[in-house]
Design brief:
Elements (H helix, E strand, L loop, with lengths): L2 E7 L10 H15 L5 E7 L3 E7 L4 H12 L5 H16 L4 E5 L4 E5 L9 E18 L6 E7 L2 E8 L1 H7 L7 E13 L4 E13 L5 H9 L12 H9 L7
Parallel strand pairs: 8-10
Antiparallel strand pairs: 1-3, 1-4, 2-3, 4-5, 6-7, 6-9, 7-8, 9-10
Length: 248
Amino acid sequence: MIMEYRFTIADSFTPETLPMERLGDYVVVFAKLLGEQPNVHFRGIEAGSAVLVAIVDPPAQPKVRERMIAIRDGGGPSDARKAYVDLDEMLRNDNETGALSDEAGGVVIPFQGRNRPEPLVYGPFREDGTIDGQLIRIGGRDEIVPVHLRDGAVIHTGLNCTPEIARRIAPHLLGPTLRVHGTGTWFRTGAGVWELRSFRISDFEVLDDAPLLEVVGKIREVKESDWSTVPNPVRTLLAERHGDEGAH
């Protein structure tokens, strides 16, 4: 039994007017939406607006069907959810709407595209604060010098400083963890997520990257310190940092 899914790009696009590069973008994300890529094949593009057609091999059909139902109901794996969001954003950018339908013609997943309400955004809010990270990029010839910090998997962009601070901070490129002080401009989305748009660095300090056990050892060496009598100083430090959590 053949299982087909049709992704319809409604309204203005037709197979003749949809640019080939944009078609490729849609096909790539369409494949990510369906998943099971070794068993999902692009059959072609049909008329009636622009309709991308994919067929699913029998062994993968139950998994793809469950995946589409989960996305429709607001669930599904993270890669499928991301593909859904990306497709909807692509439609929005192209001033289009869309729909995913099955071989019977029933709509499985609607895509609002341009009809999606604008997200609520509150701000800007300005607040003094600090950001920690490794300096991975600094440069520019203007009076405002861009700075990028890496904190684990997070890259902080939108940071900037004066040329004077840039000269002081530049020697620490790809070096130890820094703590930059300054004033940030924040926005709050309707989903309650805070987004940092810019951060003006006024000063910075170099943090000690020494392992925790090494730090504890140095503390124990301090005269008149009670830490030498603490049986598990690492657990105690973590417990004090997080309250009662981790003290058990």
